[in-house]
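Input record, target 12 of the design panel.
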């Protein structure tokens, strides 16, 4: 899956004052000498937790040390992310990063105690997945242009649900409304499940969802998928056209990655990137991710860091302009 490449430099932190010939040998042989922690920002279950455990299993086989998955849910992932930002930068604590915690959370929640750019070294992109617009089957819209026309002739516009205020899917609704000129009223639910139930039951016209979350309902025919927001169609759902194919220049993905405290030594970051990248290429991981429409990451550490920055700069202003507030 094509992703925008940009570059960014990450410093050596506390190692900067030491000559490379002295600093690197003291780190590389000794790391890792004890278990690593992978902090997941949501509760067990679902694609977030599955990806974390897939990577953790493969990584501990390669490193020869346990990788302990620790779920710390709450406040849209900002509690767990703050915890990792304040952790010792010794290469033993990492967070399952996402657009939710790195791009949206800092703008959505008051008094967030971390800066996604200053406080983290972004190590490796784990996966990306498509976002999808679906509608109730009784809504007379077969595609995005139908949806726009329907919004224009419907008094008050159309009601579009998401898994929560300030979520990536909420922002996609806002962005599409801006691009198309359609009046789309966002309706926030507490999770994708209740939002999807509202679509199926006709309480709302449609919703923005992650393709993995909506996949079963699309296959069952309980909702109609009218577009995905990727640069290309999903191999799992080749009949769903992209926004661009329908005349709207809009591309957005959900993503997961690994990030560590900013002062983590560069040799550790580089090795972790290499080891995780190897895990992501194993047939078992590729096959399991494909089952829920996740594409393993394949970009450099610098490109991943630049991607985080780009999402932060893109979504933060949109969240603030939308007036979304944490619930």
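The sequence produced for target 12 reads:
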């Amino acid at each position: 899956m094509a992703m925008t490449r940009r570059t960014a430099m990450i410093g050596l932190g506390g190692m900067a004052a030491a000559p490379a010939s002295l600093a690197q040998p003291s780190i590389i042989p000794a790391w890792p000498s004890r278990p690593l922690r992978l902090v997941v920002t949501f509760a067990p279950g679902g694609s977030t937790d599955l990806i974390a455990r897939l990577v953790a299993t493969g990584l501990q086989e390669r490193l020869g040390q346990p990788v302990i998955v620790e779920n710390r849910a709450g406040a849209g992932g900002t509690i767990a992310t703050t915890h990792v930002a304040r952790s010792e930068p010794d290469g033993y604590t990492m967070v399952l990063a996402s657009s939710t915690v790195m791009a949206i959370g800092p703008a959505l929640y008051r008094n967030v105690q971390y800066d996604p750019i200053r406080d983290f070294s972004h190590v490796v992109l784990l996966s990306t997945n498509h976002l999808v617009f679906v509608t109730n089957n009784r809504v007379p819209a077969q595609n995005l242009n139908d949806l726009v026309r329907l919004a224009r002739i419907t008094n008050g516009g159309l009601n579009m649900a998401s898994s929560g205020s300030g979520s990536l899917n909420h922002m996609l609704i806002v962005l599409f409304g801006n691009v198309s000129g359609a009046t789309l009223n966002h309706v926030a639910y507490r999770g994708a499940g209740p939002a999807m139930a509202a679509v199926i039951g006709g309480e709302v016209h449609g919703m923005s969802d992650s393709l993995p979350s909506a996949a079963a309902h699309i296959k069952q025919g309980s909702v109609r998928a009218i577009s995905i927001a990727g640069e290309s169609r999903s191999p799992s759902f080749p009949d769903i056209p992209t926004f661009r194919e329908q005349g709207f220049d809009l591309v957005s993905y959900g993503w997961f990655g690994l990030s560590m405290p900013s002062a983590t030594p560069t040799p550790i970051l580089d090795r972790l990137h290499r080891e995780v990248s190897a895990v992501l290429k194993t047939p078992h991981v590729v096959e399991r991710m494909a089952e829920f429409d996740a594409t393993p990451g394949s970009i450099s550490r610098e490109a991943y860091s630049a991607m985080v920055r780009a999402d932060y700069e893109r979504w933060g202003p949109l969240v603030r302009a939308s007036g979304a507030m944490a619930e």
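The CA atoms of residues 38 and 69 lie 5 Å apart.
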